[in-house]
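chain below, 269 aa
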Amino acid sequence: MTALLDIQGLEIASADKRLVSGLSLRMAPRERVGLIGESGSGKSLTALAIAGLLPQGLRSSGYVRLSGQEVVGAKERALRQLRGTALAIVFQEPLTALDPLMRVGRQIAEPLVRRARRDGETLGKKELERAVLAAMQDVSLPDPERLARSYPFELSGGQRQRVAIAMALACRPRLLIADEPTTALDVTTQKEILALLDRLVTERDMALLFIGHDLPVVAGAVDRVVVMREGVAVEEGTTAEVFAAPRHAYTQSLFDAAKRFDQAIGGGR
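prediction:
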């Protein structure tokens, strides 16, 4: 099967430091893969490189092919065509990802208009309003008419993340990158967002690249994991294999730390 995402020898570096080294990863359509590792291991930088969104001052090299198109070295115009169509990203903190001065409904409307334009369609005002409400209902936002008129700061963290997911899916991407999408949420809301992502990825036949450091969360979201340490992939395998019998000492240390944390939390109850 042709890979949806094909990364070979990806390098990401600043002026004086290599941040990701020799990373290779292939994802098939509809596959679910997790990138796990501690903060600073290069997970989020990898996601940004896939989307062609690396911050100024960082450079990438190697081979990153997304939906048949090369990303490394591509012009911004070509990358804009890929974003939304081939992939979309849901970030960790939706409050910083959303425009604080724009009503929620208008923010969801923008990618819907782009998708319609891409498909050679024109949405009238009423059609666009219905499409916005449908997108909000699809991510289980309550009272969408009221929330569409609200600003991001007037929504809860879970509601803002649902808005971000609605915007990410508006253009019907083939790959969804979820970059620690539940870290800023309480436990109950985390479970709701994870269930929502699982349903939407399944219903829309999307691939999922789930980035996180919370091992149980990642385990419940993906079928295969890649473990990163200091910019290097140190272990890869099915979720069942890696979680049952981690081979690399670093992976084992991650699991040991998670177990100690769980025991400490349990002991404090």
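The chain has one domain: 5-267. The longest helix spans residues 249-267.
thats it, cya
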